[in-house]
Amino acid sequence: MNDPVNHPSHYCSDSGLEAIHVIEAFGLNFHLGNAVKYILRAGKKDNEIQDLRKALWYLSRQLDIWENSYGGPVLRDAADSDRAGAYGGSAP
């Protein structure tokens, strides 16, 4: 059943799992929750590329917050070191 206010179809999987339940189960903050929301709905409501760009925008905002609070790029592992240039950072 499509309830556009309480259970919009573009935020539900075929099995009935909703994006909000995933976000709440993992305790995601605003930025990460929105990134997940746009990834999960990609191609179900609007333009898939636009949804993925929105997800990247929220991820970028969260990275900025973390990097500003730690005084620089936050890198977690060697694979992140290879991607550091994509975020304007450098490997530690």
Architecture overview:
The chain has 92 residues and is mostly helical. It has one domain (9-87). Helix content is 53%, strand content 0%. It has helices spanning 19-26, 30-41, 48-70, 78-83. α2 packs antiparallel against α3. It starts with 18 loop residues before the first helix and ends in a 9-residue tail after the last helix. 11% of the residues are buried. Mean pLDDT is 79; it is low at 83-92.
Summarize the structure.
This protein has 92 residues and is mainly α. The chain has four helices and no strands.
Uncertain residue segments: 83-92
Coarse shape: elongated
Quote the distance from N terminus to C terminus. 51 Å
CA radius of gyration: 16 Å
Q: Strand tally, please?
A: 0
How many domain units?
1
Main attributes of the structure:
92 residues; mainly alpha; 4 helices; elongated
Topology:
Elements lengths: L18 H8 L3 H12 L6 H23 L7 H6 L9
